[in-house]
Design a protein that fits this description.
Elements: H1 12-36, E1 53-61, E2 64-73, E3 76-82, H2 87-92, H3 96-110, H4 123-140
Helix pairs in contact: 3-4
C-alpha cells in the first residue's frame, strides 16, 4: 500500500492577501446592500397631529427679526424656510443660511425635531432655529 502524500506549501504573503481580499469583498457586499436596500420612510409622530397650513415664529438676531415659516400638510412637515432673509443678514451671519437648510432637511426627513445633529461650528444658531420651528409646530398641533 502506497500512500501518495501531498505536501502543500502556503506562503504567509498569499494567506494575508487572500484574507484582505475576502474582507474587502464582504465590505463591498455590505455597502451595496445598505446603499440599495429600501429605507423606511419615517412618518410623523403618531401622538402629534398637525393641522394643515403655514405657521411662523420669529427669531431675533441683534436688531433684526427673522421669520421661520413651517408648512405642514396632511402627511406631515413638508417644508421649512426663512421668509425675510436678505443679503445684509446673510453677510452679518454667514452660517445662518447653511444652518437653516441643514435643520430644515433633517426635520423634513425625520418629521420630528428630536435626534437632530448640530455642526459644532454653528450649534447655537442651529438650536435657535430648531426652537423657533418647535414653537411654530406647537401652533400647528391639533388639540
Amino acid at each position: 500500500m502506497s500512500s501518495k502524500t501531498k505536501i502543500i506549501v502556503l506562503h504567509m504573503k498569499e494567506i494575508i492577501y487572500t484574507a484582505v481580499f475576502a474582507v474587502l469583498g464582504i465590505l463591498l457586499i455590505l455597502l451595496l446592500v445598505f446603499m440599495f436596500f429600501p429605507k423606511d420612510k419615517k412618518t410623523t409622530d403618531p401622538s402629534k397631529e398637525y393641522m394643515s397650513g403655514i405657521y411662523t415664529d420669529r427669531i431675533t438676531l441683534g436688531s433684526t427679526e427673522l421669520e421661520m415659516e413651517v408648512t405642514v400638510d396632511q402627511k406631515g412637515i413638508s417644508s421649512i424656510r426663512c421668509v425675510n432673509l436678505n443679503e445684509s443678514v446673510t453677510a452679518m451671519y454667514p452660517l445662518l443660511q447653511p444652518a437653516i437648510e441643514d435643520m430644515a432637511d433633517q426635520i423634513c426627513e425625520k418629521q420630528t425635531t428630536e435626534g437632530l445633529t448640530y455642526p459644532k461650528e454653528n450649534a447655537y444658531t442651529s438650536q435657535m432655529i430648531v426652537d423657533a420651528i418647535e414653537r411654530a409646530l406647537k401652533k400647528a398641533e391639533v388639540k
